[in-house]
Design goal:
The protein is 21% helix and 33% strand. It contains eight helices and 19 strands. Strands 10-11-12-9-3-13 form a six-stranded mixed β-sheet, with helices on both faces. α2 packs across α7. The protein is globular and about 65 Å long.
Length: 364
């Protein structure tokens, strides 16, 4: 299976830089370069860059593009200005999550969807299947685009200096298309780290040139290891952990991205019913006493009875606390509830807390 791993356009750079490589979502990806803690702190305090070329990109064009995107997406893109980005999910009829994604509005007749690496084939098949009856042309552009994410409080200054572009004019959750070196390059400002930052989408050749310039500028190369610790600390979900085919956005505590007052969309009925009846379980934060580290899949108990399980857990690099996100049954999801996490044969006391363990520092 290992030999079938896809390599990103920056693979040679990672190997040359001595990155620890590992399979992720069918790709051979860098997990760390100098160490997860050092890379995590570089992004929190200065600037770091991630190879995220493994992400999928799908373009939807045509007279029905708005209608179609509204049909498959739980968030509401109605009336949005061109250049705005929306976070949300695509759901099955039963409310379970196909994937979480970003929708970039180019204009009313063109949208750019950014989906998770592990889900590209499944998502594209689902997107195509549900496009029947809509006047749209859908193209999977995942193989064309390379992508880097430049993240951290110094991201704007560093990237503006390298590219010589007015990136300070791009607002949070917006994007612009620039013509650079004879090609169109998309630059957005979202971030999956809780810090300010940009995503740059271009051809493989452009992406490699940009990576080299970032390295010359002294930007810390970062692997997926600290991408996970960074997103986790600010309560952002990872598909496969906090979201899945059997986890709805409401159960994932992401109801703010589900607009039940907009017209029909796939999964709306099931989600509306779930909201009316109330979810039976949901994702919460847990803070453990002491230094034991909770990991994905560990049971959460109350009075010896299993009431949930850990979805992601770490000793938080930014706060030093042992914390986790967990899927917990009602009524044990209330803030302040005392729980125990089973780590092998022992249990460790913890408390239900908010799932954001560290405050985000996005550009206002």
């Amino acid at each position: 299976m290992e030999e079938n791993l896809v390599k990103t356009c920056l693979h040679d750079r990672h190997v040359k830089q001595g990155a620890l490589m590992s399979p992720f979502g069918g790709f051979d990806m860098p997990i760390q370069y100098v160490g997860i803690t050092e890379e995590h702190n570089a992004v929190r305090n200065h600037v770091g860059v991630f190879d995220v070329s493994h992400m999928g990109e799908v373009r939807v064009k045509g007279p029905d593009a708005y209608k179609y995107v509204s049909h498959i997406f739980v968030n509401d893109v109605t009336g949005a200005p061109d250049g705005q980005i929306f976070y949300g999910m695509m759901c099955y009829e039963n409310g379970g999550t196909v994937d979480d994604l970003l929708v970039y509005k180019v204009n009313d007749e063109e949208y750019f969807l950014v989906i998770n690496a592990a889900n590209i084939a499944k998502d594209f098949e689902w997107i195509m299947k549900n496009s029947e009856g809509f006047n749209v042309e859908i193209t999977n552009e995942s193989d064309y685009y390379g992508e880097v994410a430049v993240q951290g409080p110094e991201a704007e200054a560093v990237l503006m200096k390298i590219l010589g572009l007015p990136l300070n004019e791009i607002a949070f959750y917006n994007f612009k298309t620039f013509h650079i070196d004879g090609e169109d390059v998309i630059i957005s400002r979202t971030g999956y780290t809780g810090e300010d930052g940009f995503e740059v989408y271009g051809s493989h050749e452009f992406t490699v040139r940009l990576w080299d310039k970032l390295m010359e500028a002294g930007v810390q190369a970062c692997g997926l290891g600290c991408r996970d610790t960074l997103r986790f600390e600010v309560g952002l979900p990872l598909y496969g952990d906090e979201l899945a085919a059997d986890i709805t956005p409401l159960e994932a505590s992401l109801s703010m991205f589900v607009k039940l007052d907009k017209p029909e969309f796939i999964g709306k009925e099931a989600l509306a019913q779930q909201k009316a009846e109330g979810v039976k379980r949901r994702i919460v934060g847990i803070e453990l006493e002491g230094t034991a580290v909770p990991r994905h899949g560990y049971p959460v108990e109350v009075d010896g009875q299993v009431v949930g399980e850990i979805t992601t857990g770490y000793k938080s690099i930014s706060t030093g606390k042992s914390v986790a996100m967990a899927m917990i049954n009602k009524p044990y999801d209330k803030l302040g509830t005392k729980v125990e996490v089973r780590i092998r044969k022992k249990t460790f006391p913890g408390t239900v807390v908010k799932k954001r363990f560290y405050d985000k520092n996005y550009k206002k």
